[in-house]
Amino acid sequence: MEIRYANHPEEIKRYNTGELREKFLVEKLFEQGKISLTYSHVDRMIFGGVTPALEDLTIQLDKQIGVSYFLERRELGIINIGNDGYVLLDGEKYEMNRHDGLYVGRGTKEVWFGSHDPAKPAKFYINSAPAHHTYPTVKIDIKDIQPLELGKSGTLNERKIHRYIHPNVCESCQLQMGLTMLMPGSVWNTMPAHTHERRSEVYLYFDMEEDTRAFHFMGEPSETRHLVLKNEQAVISPSWSIHSGVATSHYTFIWGMCGENISYDDMDHIKMSELR
Question: Is 239 within 8 Å of 200 (Cβ atoms)?
Answer without folding.
Answer: yes
